[in-house]
Amino acid sequence: MKYLILLLLIPVATFGQQPDTARLYLTLNNQLTTHRNDLECNFNAKLSKSYVLTYDCYNTRHQLVKQLNRKPRLYDYTYSALTRPYFKMMPNSITDTYLIGDLKNGKPYNGFFIYPGTNIWLIFDFYQNGKRSFQVFNDLLPASRVKDTENSFTAISKKNTFVNGRLQSGIEVTPVTVKKGIVDIVRKVDKYQTVGYTLTMYSKNNPENLEIKLVKSGYQLACMGKNSIDITYSKIGKKIVFYDWKGRKVSKPKHPDNDIYSVALEKLAEVLKFKSVDADALKRFVREQW
After folding, report:
1. Residue 9: pLDDT above 50?
2. Does the pLDDT at position 109 exceed 80?
3. Percent of the chain scored above 70 by pLDDT?
4. pTM to 2 decimals?
5. Are residues 95 and 70 in contact, defined by beta-carbon separation less than 8 angstroms?
6. pLDDT (average), residues 90-112
7. 121, 138 contact by CB (below 8 A)
8. Mean pLDDT throughout 116-123?
9. Do the beta carbons of residue 14 and residue 217 sit within 8 Å?
10. What mean pLDDT is reported for the chain?
11. pLDDT of residue 144
12. Cα three-residue angle 91-32-79, rounded to 5 degrees
């Protein structure tokens, strides 16, 4: 139920973003103010998501020179000497926290920039001298953070690390456009290896996560708070075992017609092939189902 509550809030936080009409300005040393100053910041509704308000900041020659993101809350490990100049805490009537990104020739150069390549997940790129150094993101999966909705969606507590541009640990998100809702495919990585996927899905007020964990002999699939499925492969073929929401082994369960995610999980179990799952295969599956 906690997972369900969390995901029910996602469309409100992500797609119900209200335009910000405040006239905001930045000084050249990144101080935010409502008084006319060096840089004028215009609200960017397309990039804003999950309670975070994103702005494009222009100089007097109308050149885009900075990105401003209001309200994200970074955890302590991101307050390094490297990131501190780009993370501001100013409890006042304007905002509590904000992130700054400096552009050079219209492209990210130093600091934090909101990552546009997701439907649901809130991710920030951190750049150093024009190159992405790492990402930080809001982890949607823990259920314990549903007590305070805005804090839940703006807490930036996880980090993606890259080595020579390759994801070493963290997540990689692939957005999917579907007719019946929104989907992000989340690839989980540890020590460069894919360890599983999550399909973060929302369709017609029925939000759900479908979990795919890679194990030595096959897959473990789970529909949050509902059923789960173990798939094992051997020389004699593929074996599928069903479990109910309490983890008890059952025969193939019957679902009401509106339980689209449990049905989808079973369809996924049928089409998965040993060691062949990847984001492209999951994208095709999602588009076929939705």
Report:
1. no
2. yes
3. 83
4. 0.86
5. yes
6. 84
7. yes
8. 92
9. no
10. 83
11. 39
12. 65
Residues contacting 281, CB < 8 A, separation 6+: none
CA 32 to chain centre: 27
* CA gap 172, 65 in Å, rounded: 28
- pLDDT tens, position by position, 239-271: 999 998 888 898 877 766 667 778 888 889 888
Q: How far apart are the C-alpha atoms of 123 and 126, rounded to whole Å? A: 10
Exposure string over 74-105, b if 16+ CB within 10 A, otherwise e: beeebeeeebeebbbeeeeeebebbbbbbbee
199 residue type, one letter: L
Distance CA 230, CA 266 (A): 11
Q: Is 167 exposed, middle or buried (0-12, 13-18, 19+ CB in 10 A)?
A: middle
Q: Which residue has the tokens 């702005």?
A: 55
Q: What 8-state DSSP symbol labels residue 49?
A: B
Tokens found for residue 113? 């920039």
Token pair, residue 235, equals 């020389």
Looking up tokens 């409502």 gives: 34
Check: CB of residue 231 under 8 Å from CB of residue 269: yes
